[in-house]
Amino acid sequence: MNRLKNSFGLYATLLIAAFLNCGLLELELEQTPTKTRMQGLWEVVEAYDEDGNSILEKINYPATFFQFQSDNNIISSAGPMIMMLVYGNSKYTSIASKIDQTFNYASADIFTNGEWFIEGGVTERFTLEMKLEGLPGQKSLTTLLDLLGITKDYLDVTIYHKFKNVYVEFDNFSDNTEMTWEFDNSTTAVYNKKDNYGDYVLWNGFPVDRFSHCKFVFRKHAGSLKDAVVAAAKAQ
């Protein structure tokens, strides 16, 4: 009987310790600044439009990665994802046959760049700014915009797409390896080009209130962006 009691006591102690450790880990993750948690290489593993339909296959060429750096810079293979956000599912579908030619990341060491901005501490919102210039250059993006019906007056060299107040959350039980974004009703957009002084000038080629209210689920990824993209292309 004493042996049974001792075994039960040891089991209870271990169980309590496990719960306490999980609680401490969750508390530590919750107190870690959101900017710190977002840094690193992430892969989009789920993507949904505003109706809840999966759009992952539509944006992966061959896969969608974001490399968040501590100096607020972004390197990504997210050109198709950004075009889907800006121009919407229906318009994006109409140019899908040209997307893979424009954003062929696996065959060129050129990526879609941008910046991200976030306040200190723990927060649920951040700002994403991605610039589209096409790959390998201006002509590719110009072709896509022309197919979308963007007039020649707005076929600029580089367009900076800024989304403010994008919702971000983490699954604390995934040990900081799963992140979710939502472009919701609190998110606003502004699109710019730059003048000869490098100052922002509003780009009015497409209405800013028509961006897609999408949801994206990310998983933390090891290694470099280039290696991840090449591996994804080989796996197809």
Describe it.
The model has no long low-confidence stretch (mean pLDDT 87). By secondary structure, the chain is an alpha+beta fold. The chain has helices spanning 2-31, 34-38, 56-59, 79-87, 89-94, 96-102, 138-147, 225-235, and strands at residues 40-48, 65-68, 73-76, 112-117, 125-132, 159-170, 178-182, 188-194, 200-202, 215-221. It is built from eight helices and ten strands. The longest helix has 30 residues, at 2-31. An eight-stranded antiparallel β-barrel has the order 1-2-3-4-5-6-7-10. It starts with a helix and ends with a helix.
Element layout with pairings:
Elements: H1 2-31, H2 34-38, E1 40-48, H3 56-59, E2 65-68, E3 73-76, H4 79-87, H5 89-94, H6 96-102, E4 112-117, E5 125-132, H7 138-147, E6 159-170, E7 178-182, E8 188-194, E9 200-202, E10 215-221, H8 225-235
Antiparallel strand pairs: 1-2, 1-10, 2-3, 3-4, 4-5, 5-6, 6-7, 6-8, 7-10, 8-9
Describe the structure concisely for a colleague.
The protein is α+β, with helices and mostly antiparallel strands.
Q: Which series of helices and strands comes N to C?
A: HHEHEEHHHEEHEEEEEH
Looking across the biggest beta sheet, what order are the strands in? 1-2-3-4-5-6-7-10
Helix content: 25-40%
Please state the CA-atom Rg, rounded to the nearest Å: 21 Å
**Total beta strand runs:** 10
Structural class by SSE content:
alpha+beta
Could you give the distance between the termini?
Answer: 60 Å
- Which residues sit in consecutive blocks of at least 5 with pLDDT less than 50? none
Helix count from the secondary structure assignment: 8
On the 0 to 100 scale, the average pLDDT is 87
Overall form: globular
Strand content: 25-35%
The major sheet is characterized as: 8 strands, antiparallel, barrel
